């Protein structure tokens, strides 16, 4: 299958109160990509801005939290005919001009899942603090080693999935919050899908983070849970 046709790509953007970021993301979207914003119940102008840029807006299902947004996006994708799902954060921290390169990586490596590593890519100064770099690395190395592979950024919001991957992963995903990326990563290997990591650039986000210090620590707990679960 060739991923050359941009019309075969659906970009899903989970967003919660990202009125500034979403505008930047949609302004920089490569020509021809279909885009849907999964809104997590924003109380700012996120939905209005998305509609202004002709993105389809979907209200998230399953409850509150980013995981529910991601799963809603996958469910929506499976109801369409698109061949590739691109998942990207709505805060403007990722560079959309890298999308074609990520999809090419998927095609060249015959991968089902591609994750964009902000640790291996070029980071704008101040875009990611030392704690986030360190904790992302630890979590990624531990989870990757479970499968005898080296990954550096499994908590990234920047993913590409083949249709086969979404079909396989969607029924397995139960996460409601920011642990969704770890669950996607573990489920990818559990299901025997081929996963690669490519470097991506990272810049300072617009607006305020939704990933609080409390949620960052909670993700460590989830890491242990997912690791243990993978053995049984
Ligand atoms: N649909 C939906 N999106 C959410 C929810 N919570 C966060 N998001 C979005 O998920 C993406 C990632 O959230 P961020 O706050 O940027 O978290 P992060 O990228 O880990 O942390 P930063 O370093 O602050 O960028 C953003 O586009 C958020 O708007 C939610 O409950 N529902
Ligand atoms: Mg972000």
Question: What would you say this structure looks like, in words?
Answer:
- The protein is an alpha/beta fold.
- It has one domain (7-231): Alpha-Beta Complex (Spore Coat Polysaccharide Biosynthesis Protein SpsA, Chain A).
- Helices cover 40% and strands 15% of the residues.
- The chain is built from 8 helices and 7 strands; from the N terminus they run E-H-E-H-E-H-E-H-E-H-E-H-H-E-H.
- The chain has helices spanning 19-27, 46-52, 66-78, 99-108, 130-145, 163-169, 180-190, 213-231, and strands spanning 9-15, 34-39, 56-59, 84-87, 113-117, 159-162, 195-199.
- The protein has a 7-stranded mixed sheet with strand order 3-2-1-4-6-5-7, with helices on both faces.
- The longest helix has 19 residues, at 213-231.
- The chain is globular, with a radius of gyration of 16 Å.
- The model has no long low-confidence stretch (mean pLDDT 94).
- The site of magnesium ion has 5 residues, from loops.
Blueprint of the fold:
Layout: E1 9-15, H1 19-27, E2 34-39, H2 46-52, E3 56-59, H3 66-78, E4 84-87, H4 99-108, E5 113-117, H5 130-145, E6 159-162, H6 163-169, H7 180-190, E7 195-199, H8 213-231
Helix pairs in contact: 1-2, 7-8
Bound molecules: guanosine-5'-triphosphate (GTP) and magnesium ion.
Guanosine-5'-triphosphate (GTP) binds at residues 14-16, 18, 38-40, 60, 64-66, 69, 89-91, 93, 157, 205, 209-211.
